[in-house]
Write a structure and sequence with these properties.
By secondary structure, the protein is an alpha+beta fold. The chain is built from twelve helices and seven strands. The strands form two sheets. Strands 1-5-2-3-4 form a five-stranded antiparallel beta sheet. Strands 6-7 form a two-stranded antiparallel sheet. A hairpin with a 2-residue loop joins strand 2 and strand 3.
Amino acid sequence: MSLQGDLTTLELGDLFQNLETHQRTGILELEGSRGKRQLYFREGRLSLFADGKRPSLMEVLVSSGTVRAEDLEAAKKKRRRSRKSLGEVLIEEGAIEESQLLGIATARLMDEVCELIASEKGSFRFTKGKIPRGMFDPEERRLKLSFPAGPLLLEAARREDHWRLIREQVPSDAAHYVLDRAASPRSGAEPDPLREAVLERIDGTLSVSEVMAPFPHCRFEAYQRLAYLVETRVLRLATPDDMVQLAKDLLPGDPERAWQVIER
């Protein structure tokens, strides 16, 4: 069974609901301005997502600091002597809890698909069938994630409203921010480890997209924290003079990075 059409005549959310109502199992391929994306539905529920530029789940664990790179390499060597997945080996070795692994994978997929629902345009094609070999991350396949359409669409709508507010404070991912020396986080604010993690990466040398790089598993929440820091004037947009001063400070110890700052 094949179903195809254009997302200008059938919204992605309506398509998700159609697949759930009829309990379809197969691949939904989307093609738009961002290229091709594939989503796998199991009995009408979203289970997997693929994008040519998407990092693997194991790469996300390392970039987010959840798993050490050396622990992942050790797991790869140990896995060669068994049929277990890398995730299973990491759990056995105590490098990560199973609930933590599942939570990160779930949060990332939720984040990605909510953005997709809010912005995707182009054509679609649904093809009934099993998961093709090599199309999806095998570590995610093992987790057997499952998202019903209703809660997913509600969350996508909620986030769309919040993204508008975020973009009022952070309009460009290419922008650079610096700490406003005259400001500090609001006194009395509750401790927020994610907000502190975002703040620690702000030194003027990194663009917004680079600041967000370690948070692929909680991208939406990290952007909320960044917007809060800008709104409360803890951070301000870097000026050309700021960038020149940063380059001068970097020049003695890291001339290559200093030149990169000047170019920006």
